[in-house]
Design goal:
There is one protein chain. With about 200 residues, the protein is of the alpha+beta class. The protein folds into 2 domains: about 5-45, no CATH class; about 50-195, Mannose-Binding Protein A, Chain A. Helix content is about 30%, strand content about 30%. The strands form 3 sheets. Strands 1, 2, 3, 5, 6, 9, 10 and 12 form an 8-stranded mixed beta sheet that branches. A two-stranded antiparallel ribbon has the order 4-11. The radius of gyration is 18 Å and the shape is globular.
Length: about 200
């Protein structure tokens, strides 16, 4: 990509434009022009869906789960597996990344860092689920910023592994589940990310 545009930014812009109907040929022509590439990437990121939520870390994890009114919650969603790391009450801006292709965990984390984001933690994921309950009905939302110690999970075929929390749905029911940290995620998955800079 020409013009000093990061690979992460270029990829996210390409995915967004293709979802809007842009052809690969159109994207190739955009990428060949430094000035146009910068403008397109800036346009995509300036119009990304941001969700500003107030995360209250004075609440317990159980209280955060209860606030979301989920239809089911995996038994391993407990404070000893997924401790709340934040403090106090903070406004955070959460962005959902959906890359439109199969991706590994390490790849996603690298893309987020290159774009100035960190992985959301469980307290941010649960707050988003409570504030925007229909989001998880569209696609699973993963918080890679909270990882369990290695544990056995009947939900994940009894594997002994490290897990991350996921908001999702099953048969029109909202649920909080877990998935292995190291895996290949399908093209429909969304990853919750938090802007590294503080809100003004």
């Amino acid at each position: 990509m020409k013009g000093g545009v990061s690979l992460g930014g270029a990829h996210q812009a390409e995915v967004t434009l293709r979802k809007m109907g842009a052809t690969p040929l159109l994207w190739t022509r955009i990428a060949e022009s430094a000035g146009l590439a910068r403008k397109v990437v800036a346009l995509v990121f300036n119009h990304s869906e941001d969700y500003i939520v107030r995360v209250d870390c004075t609440k317990t994890l159980a209280e955060m789960v209860a606030a979301g009114n989920y239809d089911s919650v995996a038994p391993n969603i407990r404070v000893d597996n997924f401790p709340v790391k934040g403090t106090g009450v903070t406004d955070v801006c959460i962005v959902l990344f959906c890359f439109g292709k199969e991706v590994t965990t390490k790849w996603v984390e690298g893309e987020m860092r290159s774009l100035g984001y960190r992985q959301a933690r469980i307290e941010e994921l649960l707050t988003l689920g409570a504030a925007k309950p229909l989001l998880q009905m569209k696609s699973p939302i993963i918080a890679l910023g909270s990882r369990s110690p290695k544990l056995l999970s009947a939900e994940c075929n009894g594997d002994f592994d490290t897990y991350v929390p996921v908001l999702g749905s099953l048969k029109d029911k909202r649920r909080v589940s877990i998935q292995p940290y190291n895996m290949v995620w399908d093209e429909n998955c969304s990853f919750a990310a938090v802007r590294m800079q503080k809100l003004i």
